[in-house]
Every structure is written in C-alpha cells, then in structure tokens.
Records
---
Amino acid sequence: MAEITEHDLDDIARGAAILGTGGGGDPYIGRLLAHSAVREHGPVPLAPLSELDDDAVVLPVAMMGAPTVMVEKLPSAEQVGLAARTLATYLGKELTHIACAEAGGVNSLIPVVAAAQLGLPLVDADGMGRAFPELQMVLPTLYGIRATPMSIADEKGNRGVLDTVDNHWAERLARSATIDMGCSAMISNYAMSGAQARESMVPGTLTLCAELGALVRQAREEHENPVDRVVERLRRLRGRTLFSGKVVDVARRTVTGFARGEARLSGMDGDTGTEMLLRFQNEHLVAEADGEACASVPDLICTLDRESGEAVTTEGLRYGQRLTVIAAPADPRWHTPEGVALAGPRYFGYDLDPIGVAG
C-alpha cells in the first residue's frame, strides 16, 4: 500500500479498532474525519519506517481524553491541523512526516487527517503496536525521547504548548488541560528525527490494520465467519482466542479523563458455565476467567462481535452483546523490565505480574 485512499480508510479503521484493545477512540469518528480530509486533499502517501532519512522530522498527532466523551463531543478537522501546526511553529522546524502515536480506532485515522491537510506522507508505524491510556506509554519513552514540547488544542480554538521535566509530567499536566477542555482534546507530541523513529516505533502498523480490516470485510462478503479470519491472522503473531460469551453486566464511569470500569461475560459454546471479567481503563487491562487472571497488559486483549467481527470498544460495551475475546502478544520491548514498569499490570494497580500470551 503505497498510499492511503478513501477506499482504504474503512479497512484501516476496522483493523485499528481490533488492535486498539477496546480503546483508541471510536473508529467511526476517525473514519468520518479521514474520509472528508482525503476527499478534499487527495490520497496520503504511506512511508515505510525503514526508509525514513536520519534527519526527517516526524510528528505524531492524536486525540487525548475519555472515549466515552468523544462519542458525543466530536472533534473538527480544523482542530487536528491546529495541533500539528502549533507544535511545528513552536519547534521552528519544517515537518517531513506525520505519524500515529498508537494503533487505535480514532487515533490511527487522526494522523491521516493531519497528513492530508498538511500535504505530508504518513509513516507506516506507531508508537505502541496497540493502544494505551496514558501518553507516556509509548516505546519512544523507553528510548529517552521526550513527549514535550507538546501542543494541545480544543474544538473552540484554544491551544497551548507544554514543556515538562519528563514524560510522566507531560501526561499529568496534559490530562488536567484535557479535562478543562471538556475531556477530549487534540495533541501533537514526541517530535522525533527519522533515526529516532526507526529505532523506537513499531513498523507496519497501518498495513496490518488494513489487512485485518480487509479480512473482516471479505469474510462478511463471502458469508464466512470474520472472527475466525482475524484469529487465524493473529495466530501468526502467536495470538489466540481466550473466551466466547455474552455481556451480562457493565460498570463504566468517566474519572479523571478516563473511561474506567469492568465488563462481565457469561460463557457460550465451549465456555458455557464459566465467566470472564474484563477490567479496563480506556483499554482492556486484565482478563479474568472464573476469578483467575488469564491475560494482561502489556499484551493485547481484544473484543470482537461474534457475528460481524467488528471490534467492540470499551465505551461501546452493552448488555446482551455476544463477544469473542482474543489475546495477542505485544511488541517484545513491552516485556522488558522498563516496558513492564511503564505499562504493566502493577502500574495500573493490579497485584500481578504480566501474563504473557502463549501461542
């Protein structure tokens, strides 16, 4: 895929929602914005991570806030461009590439909007290989790349630039600003060189998103099971099915700019007579089968509708939904001591070591 056209956007959105582990924002919102931007400005060139020049100037763009709020408080295309232009002006550098901070529903498509508006190529990579709730939780943090200077902009036109002592403080102050901006805002941060991007980012993310989305679409067109197609593809990454069941209870609340809560599933088919509890903070963090943890961050815990194959986000969980829960390994760098300290279960308050996905 040398460029992203309107034809590709639905597949990317669908696949990004799967890799987003329940978070990353509503893919429908990102799809609307991206369709409009590509229709107006034309296809977006897709640049392989390995081909970036050392001195390229790469700028990730994303949406920050609680997914539950994003459903009702829609961003504008102008807001996306404002965040990128604000940081570029502050840095005094000429941008060469836009990038994705994470693989998530809206946050894999917001960069498409920025790239289309600015006439720049988009890097086929992201900073996580999945979605995480806090902005310091990216692989560039492990390589000493600073989150700031960082721009933040709301839909009213308010904007600012933060320059913090470390990436955890960037999360803390940006989260406070996001809450004041209505619990969702557009950000641009982790400006890096091409050499830094090649070292610290996860390659091929958008290509994988498009592939997963196409598998779901094609299976439905051929009247086959789309979940089976996704599981088969993720098995090549050592992923596996954890559970199949019906949502019987959801407790969800928006707290300090996050969607926090848990969902309880009652088993179906081979899992009849058992239960699964999914604990989340924007993204699924821990899966428990009959009270025992069976998967956790930093690995991916993905929820798919059993019939359509569409990913179900944490803000979209509803009583009665029939889901298949899938687990897949995270980028190996997340399982280093530094990666686990940054985004492992204990960081989120769970008294357990990471539970790796066995292929």
---
Amino acid sequence: MEKLEINRHIPFGGTLQDILNHPSLSDSKLKYLLRSRGIFVEDSKNNDTYPILLSTILSPIEFEYIKENIRGKELNKKIVSRPLPWNNTEDLITIVPATINLKEILKTADSRQNILSQSNFAMVDGNPNKVRMQFKCLTNNYNSGWYRTKNEYDGEIFIEKIKENDKVYLRIIHTSPETLFVGDLGVKHLVNEFKTKNYTKPNADVERILYNNFNNEERIKFFLSLTDSSETFTFQRATDLDIAPDRTKDMPAEISKLMTGKVNTLKINGETLHEHYLIKENENHPYIELASVEALYNFSYHAAEGSCLIQFGFNGYFKKRLSNIEFSVDISTIHLKDEYRSVSKDKVRIFLLQEFEKFKTEKYNLIKQ
C-alpha cells in the first residue's frame, strides 16, 4: 500500500475509519467533532457517529484536531505493571539476562514492528534490584499509521524486586500501542526464561488487572480507593468519569430516568465528581459500569513538588466492550512548583507513574483479598 503524505491528504471513507478506530479517540471526542458541525446525536456509539463522519469530508482544522488528540496521547509515557511470584534471593542484576533480542522475538511473533535500538538491562539509580532495558521502535503499518507525523516511539521494560514480599514487578513503560505490544512480547519472553531457570514456578504467570476481574461494585470500590492519599500523592478532586448503565440489569427508577433516551455511556466532567450520587451512594454501584477516572493530585517527593492530572482505568472499554482490557495509568499534565521549574518533567512523570503503580497494586491486593 502506498504511504500517503499527511500534509497533502485529508482522509475519507475507509482510510478515515482506520483513524477513527484509534484508541485515543474516545466517543466524547468524536461527539465533540460532530457538535462543532452543528450535528447532535442522541447516542454516541460508533454505529451512530461513524456513518455521519465517514459520509462527509473533514476540514483541515478538524483533521488537525484528530491528529493532535492522537499525537498528544501517544507521546505521553504510560505504564502497566505485572507482578510475578518469585522464589530467588539473588539480586536481579546478577540473574536477569544482559539483554534480550527484541528483533528476533518480533520475527517469531510475525510482527511488522521494527526495532531501531535497544539497550542492555542495567541498574536504576544504583539499585541491584531495579533494572531496566530501553528500546525504540519504528511503525511501518501503513494501514493505520500513515497519518502520524511521528513514527518513532520509545518504550521500556522495568523489573523491580520488593524485598518485603515474594514477587517481582515487570513494568512496561510505553507511548504508542506499538511499544506496548513490543514490551508485552519482551515480558512474556522474560517470564518463560525465568520459569526455565526456576526463578518462578512453572505454572506461575504474571498478574494482570483486567476489566473482568471485578463485578460492578468491586470495580467502583477499587477506583474510589485510588482517591485516597499516599506517601507521594494527595488526592484533590475527580474531574472526569467514564461510566455507563449496566443494561443487563433492571435499574432503579432514579438511574433509569437519568439514562432515558437509550444512553449507553456518560462522560461526566466536573470539579467534585467523586461526590456524584451514582458513585457516592453504594446502592447504585451494581447498576453502573465505571471504566476510567481522571483525577487531580498534589504530589511531593525528594526531587519535586507540584500537581498532576492522572487518568487511570480501562481505556477504550466502551468502544468495543472487550472484557480483557488491561488497567493502565496515564499522567496527562504535570505542573511543578516554581522552585522545581528546572527539574525534568519527563523524569518526574516516570517516577510518578511508578509510584502510582505501587499505590494501585496495594489497593488492588486489599480489595481482592
């Protein structure tokens, strides 16, 4: 397929549909695009928004809006964490392989991604039980990627052993879907190698927090637990909720009235959404599906202080309703106090992602005990 030139073509038809399927383009963003044209739809499902968007031609401004939403989301570093049972007492740096051949791993998986560079595993901050490998990949999947102005993406596999328990944590720090895919293959390769060397049990597997690990009540309880404060974070307020009625259940009259008009999802913006009656009142929880939350936190640690906006949850669940979507964390904005202006925001983001992952894992274990 010929690679189109992003600065000379505006997509339409099937090519536009490839772009609209990108996970960064939520239903609310597509609905906003229609609203800007004076088109208001009762339902924001793909079956309703796609035909309208695909039957018209985007303006240059509208296409720029789409590109910026995709670009901004993909350039942010995100993280997923996967604990693995562990039964070895040696330092990680002495037993983790010096490197893994991502190019060969991708060939075996018949992947179309290209690895531009990768590092060896090395200690982080001189800690022998924290090691990482960084890589850069190039996307050459033109069917869905021609509209990207940046097609080189960074990723990282980070391994940490916590001495207080019998687990190691394999974390994938990723930007685009491609780097998550590559990191996932790398983690699977490492787990198999650890099993071969008896560092973990043969039947052990990484733990993943998936949408279907919870019922509706447990899921909301888990999300609310992340609005507690921790050693690093002080919760301020929830600013965005992505929720939907559970259509498999007979809803109470009060909720049913709110969902009048065949409402399938609600994107609620505000200042104190954790106080919204759908979330605050426990009796509503069985009838509500909560997929993601955006919240404002203050943070403080030895190197920086400030505030950040964190989006966490099962990103894109309401697009396809795949029950095996994995929980992810994304820090969209960081504001540093004036005295920390010279500190690298990228380093702050990585530290905060890792700290929030630990916080999330602790809360998940408490709920699932």
